[in-house]
Amino acid sequence: MNRDELERALREADVPDAVGARERARRTVLTAHGQRSPRRAPRAALVWAVVACAVAAVVFSARDTQPAREVRERVRDVFAAPTPAPTAAPAALSGRVLVTEGDELFVVARGRRTSLGHWRDATWSPRGLYVAAANANTLAALDPTDGTVRWKLVHAEQVRFPRWAPGGLHVAYRAGTALRIVYGNGTHDVLAGRMMAPVAPAWRPGHPRTLAWAGYDGTVTVEDADTAKVLWSFRSSQVRQLAWSSDGRRLLVAGRRDGTIHDVVTGARARVRVDGKIVAAAFGRRLALAVFHDGRTSVRVNGETVLSAPGRLRNLEWSPDGRSLLAAWPGADHWLVVRGREVSAVRHRFGGAGRVRGWATP
Amino acid sequence: MSTEEHAVQDAVAGWVRVGRPLSRRTDATLVRAAQAGSTEAIDELFRRHWGAAHRAAWLVVRDAAAAEDIAQEAFLSALRSLDRFDRRRPLGPWLHRIAVNRAIDWSRARALRPETPADAVLEPVASAEDGGIGEDVVAALAALGPEHRAVVVLRHLLGYTPGEIAAMLELPRGTVNSRLRRALDALAVALDEGPA
């Protein structure tokens, strides 16, 4: 065999299903590109905003002037609004929301809900093209328009917490007490960890193969899903939730009454202490925590209370653009959507068992 | 088309890149158009680079479904980084680097985490059978380790120099050369020719 023969053999080897693979990948790539916002040049408004910030900085630096006092009072007014009155505004819930009620899964979009079948837990694929759903001992990928099952895996143990990786390549889930990872097309289902705590694993945004998961012994492991290489490992006394910031830099490890934010770039840690129980958390560009205390749940974004209501809140979800926060109280006939200083109430028809599982783009 | 019309078209294309067929544009021009949101530009980049990336991934992993996912993920990674992409750099080597490195990782992981079957997989996967002119060569290649398969593919399918391969795989050039030598010797033995 000479060099030409080797090169010809490599060039002409039949790649199985090459045409089908090419068309599937082409559709996926073009769809992903269609959902991407084109790069824009900085606008004049942005320039003016920067100038305004600079002026404000000058004003703040002159501490005892009358303008400085006025600006400080206005800033306090903006952020000290703990109990806003909700108003009906369905438009606040743009996009598609996944909801489970008992053992039925729904997609809610434009005020309408569509049943996807009998599933108890679910998650969106990164671009909202599919839904990974679990029920009893089955994991499946569904078409979100009508619930058509694209593939499914049946295990001997109970399947919970499906979470789709940001690149779309993997789905991590818990089967029995094991962490398992399967390719997004349902193939190559592998055992990836043992003695996994009943806590949803969390994929690192911007890093399509990096996964954080918690063990029964309180060990939080951040590892590469393909190579099983452990990138970081933390010990925590109690883990109830894991959540990454949207830049993939900080990982919240939340327990029942406190939490720790690990900066995986610098190694720095910051404690999060609250005066109650952490019942829900959502980490996007900002950290949102729902804290239950004395029969009420207050929702705090970066430490500022933005909502407070009687009862124990169940779900917090940031919108796909990271600007709106959805809060769901069991038994309430509406979801509250916080966007800036505005709070909207979006009516729904789910009962006390309804749980929000994800929020995707339209 | 007259010479004068050609000149006018070239002048226009030089400024606004209108009127020149996509297939005649450079990767850098297409990347710039894609950054501005052009779907046609992405489609053309995909058409140019998919085949090599997919074939390279398959030759390293020898698994149709994994190769498809790996090559697709390489393109999606490129899309995610499109706004930061330096148009002075060629796109192909960047895609090949992502695809081949992930293919090596995947192959190592299969050895580390052997696949365990579930009871049912409804979606059929492609047949693992292959054929064609170089069946023996491809079968012999599959018997090598993923690191050796990768350097053979990068050198003899994609045409990179050992220095370029060393940069892509973040290895010393000497390691690349020794892996190439060992891989070619192993292929020759497998094809019953004795060491080359």
Automatic annotation (TrEMBL), chain A:
The chain crosses the membrane at residues 45-62. This is WD40 repeat domain-containing protein. Gene3D superfamilies: YVTN repeat-like/Quinoprotein amine dehydrogenase (2.130.10.10). It comes from Solirubrobacter phytolaccae. It holds the Pfam family WD40. The keyword Membrane applies. InterPro entries: WD40/YVTN_repeat-like_dom_sf, WD40_rpt. It comes from the Bacteria. Keywords: Membrane, Transmembrane, Transmembrane helix.
TrEMBL record, chain B:
PROSITE patterns: SIGMA70_ECF. Residues 45-111 form the RNA polymerase sigma-70 region domain. This is RNA polymerase sigma factor. GO terms for biological process: DNA-templated transcription initiation; response to stress. Residues 136-187 form the RNA polymerase sigma factor 70 region 4 type domain. One of its GO terms (molecular function) is sigma factor activity. It holds the Pfam family Sigma70_r4_2. The lineage of its organism: Bacteria, Bacillati, Actinomycetota, Thermoleophilia, Solirubrobacterales. It comes from Solirubrobacter phytolaccae. It comes from the Bacteria. InterPro entries: RNA_pol_sigma-70-like (IPR039425), RNA_pol_sigma-70_dom (IPR014284), RNA_pol_sigma70_ECF_CS (IPR000838), RNA_pol_sigma70_r2 (IPR007627), RNA_pol_sigma70_r4_t2 (IPR013249), RNA_pol_sigma_r2 (IPR013325), RNA_pol_sigma_r3/r4-like (IPR013324), WH-like_DNA-bd_sf (IPR036388). The keyword DNA-binding applies. Belongs to the sigma-70 factor family. ECF subfamily. Keywords: DNA-binding, Sigma factor, Transcription, Transcription regulation.
